[in-house]
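Researcher: We're teaching a course module on how sequence relates to structure. For the next exercise, students receive a sequence and then see the predicted structure as tokens, so they can try to spot secondary structure elements on their own. Here is the exercise chain.
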Amino acid sequence: MRNPKEPKHFIKIPGYPGGNTALIKFIKENLRYPKEAAENKVQGTVAVEFDFNHKGKVTKATIKSSLGSGCDEEAIRIVKLLRFNNSNNRGVKVTFHRSINIHFKAPPNPKANPEETRRVSQETTMLTYNFKPSPPKKGEQPQPPVGYTITIKKK
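Model: And here is the predicted structure for the students to work with:
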């Protein structure tokens, strides 16, 4: 009688709980676009290579492809938050290696005018608008700055 075939993979590689879709969802929910990257309008992909132990905890993370402007640090922070399934490999404690690409896309610009300041509280709503006049034409006197404040009080 023949011996049954042994599985091709002696060591089972643990995955992320919920699969790749849950992994992508976790990254999207926890990713914070760095302020420095927003100011410099930096977009792109950071490739991170990381190791995780038999308990599923990330032990080491390194940048393979850098983007700069705070994106690298944010990618490392996200990767260190990941927790993979525990592996049960016949009592063998194994460190697993994996790589992941984290995409940074600039958040959409707000449609509001940057000169507009809104302060909202429960009792009073205060809107402040600052208008910048166009430069005076030749022979005209410059206009003094104009500003409006509107206060709406709730009863």
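Model: If you want an answer key for the exercise: Residues 19-30 form the longest helix (12 residues). Strands lie at 44-52, 58-65, 96-104, 117-120, 124-131, 146-153.
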